[in-house]
Amino acid sequence: MGFDLAGYLLFAFVTSITPGPNNYLLFSYGKLFGFKRSSYLMFGIFLGFFVLLYIAGYGIAGIITQSSTAEIILKVVSSAWLLYLAIVLSRLSSEVSEGNNSRAGFLQGFILQFVNPKAWIMAITGAAAFLPKSASIHFNVFIFAISFGLVGIPCMISWIAFGDLISKVLKSEKANRILGIVLFLLMVASIVMIWI
């Protein structure tokens, strides 16, 4: 089977650990809610991205990106969703009530993958460059998706743990406001990158 496993795992790690919408969201939820209460969001992201990897592996994502209309629609929807997330992230608070039901969970993490431009780029680029080449397309896509997904889990855990750690360091509202503004600007930068 033709498969550059080492190169693929390195690609998966670098793209999974670097900042992006998923990681900003996991960081903020780790900060606000701790690891245990952020795990549903993480599993939603994992499963949504796993499905997206399957879509890319079977070539559907390539068809979507070859249509200029579909590409524009995806960019607009992605930009709107990421702007919403940027606003949410800008409102970080050091005080979290136990009854707060407004946090994102499994379903929101799952859906986010389909409007997350970084996730699409990772999936399409990975499929184009590293999809295994054995006799079975189904086996190839499974190995491609599960390898990428499993590399992403420790990366997501790292972002949640980092957020949890920051919550113990940043106690003042002023520090939290500054962090919220930084996360907002980073997310807006992600939106700008979609269009250039």
Describe this structure in words.
The protein is an all-alpha fold and 196 residues long. The chain has one domain (5-195). Helix content is 80%, strand content 0%. The protein has 8 helices and no strands. It has helices spanning 5-17, 21-57, 60-66, 68-90, 106-112, 117-130, 137-169, 173-195. The longest helix is centred in the first third of the chain and has 37 residues, at 21-57. The radius of gyration is 17 Å and the shape is globular. Mean pLDDT is 81; it is low at 94-99.
Topology:
Layout: H1 5-17, H2 21-57, H3 60-66, H4 68-90, H5 106-112, H6 117-130, H7 137-169, H8 173-195
Helix pairs in contact: 1-6, 1-7, 2-5, 2-6, 2-7, 4-8
Keywords:
mainly alpha; 196 residues; 80% helix
Number of distinct helices: 8
Total count of domains: 1
Strand content: under 5%
Order of helices and strands: HHHHHHHH
Number of E strands: 0
Summarize the structure.
This protein is mostly helical and 196 residues long.
